[in-house]
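Anyone up for a design puzzle?
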């Protein structure tokens, strides 16, 4: 993953594809988060949290590919993503068929933190120099 996160530096097309992907995935994820859940579909709390973690790990990865924020990860990627996750939760609170879950926000943060830890390890192994 270390080499993949710096591909945007060498291949501008990958950077553009990542940016376009984000432009599609952010609104799509908001729409999915706000549509009614079919009450006949079984819900599994743990798998939902894993999904939140994976999605926000993926968003972190795409943001890093798209914008290469080497020195300001938390300011430019991490905090805005966490804010987006909690904004979704607030929007869900305002809908009659969804609900606010602090644990969803925690799972979102966990995805960002896991990506950051891996990315930091890549930086320490001098992949970015």
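Challenge accepted. My sequence:
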């Amino acid at each position: 993953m270390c080499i993949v996160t710096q591909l945007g530096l060498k291949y501008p097309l990958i950077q553009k594809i990542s940016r376009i992907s984000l432009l599609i995935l952010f609104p799509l994820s908001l729409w999915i988060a706000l549509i009614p859940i079919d009450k006949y579909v079984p819900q599994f709390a743990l798998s939902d949290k894993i999904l939140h973690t994976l999605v926000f790990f993926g968003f972190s990865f795409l943001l890093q590919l798209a914008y290469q924020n080497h020195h300001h990860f938390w300011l430019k990627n991490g905090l805005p993503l966490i804010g987006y996750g909690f904004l979704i939760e607030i929007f869900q609170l305002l809908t009659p068929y969804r609900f606010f879950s602090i644990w969803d926000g925690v799972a979102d943060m966990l995805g960002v933190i896991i990506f950051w830890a891996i990315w930091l390890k890549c930086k320490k192994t001098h992949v970015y120099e």
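A detail worth pointing out: The chain is about 75% helix and 0% strand.
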